[in-house]
Amino acid sequence: MECKIRGWRIEDASDLVEALNNKKIHDNLRDGLPYPYTTSDAKDFIVAMLNADIKTTYAFAITVDDKAVGSIGVFRKDNIHSRTAEMGYYVSELYWGKGIGTSAVKQVCEYIFEYTNIIRIFAEPFAFNGASCHILEKNGFEYEGTLRKNALKNGAVLDMKMYSIIK
């Protein structure tokens, strides 16, 4: 199955609602996304991404046959870390295990390294999220270590793993 990344469109709101009304996805993302996720939430997110600073926020819809099936973003850090960026992503559960996440990460890394001066992209998946760690490893990200007791999610203190790729 082939996927493409592209900019967000307001028409993607219903696809976003479909993907994000899934507790399994929420349990692997940072807090801040409402649950249940509404069309209004989706439109607010899309508008925010469309109006974000194009020098610091690189946000894309992950699509299959032009249907948004996930989201991927790279967010530039500041100050002495201005050439470093953090990546985050998710894929709708219906598309898990089909190579969609792996392909999206590859496409975004290629884009960032070709069109920006960012030289390091990192990601911090929860340590229990083996699928996300595998996606990063398949794309050449190196495991840098475990960030012990680094997050509080759903009332549990969790470890996270640090991965990065260098231009």
From TrEMBL:
Coiled-coil residue windows: none
| Family matches, as PROSITE patterns | GNAT
Q: Which domain of life is it from?
A: Bacteria
Question: Which Pfam family, any one of them, does this sequence belong to?
Answer: Acetyltransf_3
Keywords associated with the record: Transferase
Any one GO molecular function term: acyltransferase activity, transferring groups other than amino-acyl groups
Q: Which residues form the N-acetyltransferase domain?
A: 3-164
Q: Does the keyword Transferase apply?
A: yes
Q: Which InterPro entries match?
A: Acyl_CoA_acyltransferase, GNAT_dom
| Protein name as annotated | Protein N-acetyltransferase, RimJ/RimL family
Q: What is the lineage of its organism?
A: Bacteria, Bacillati, Bacillota, Clostridia, Lachnospirales
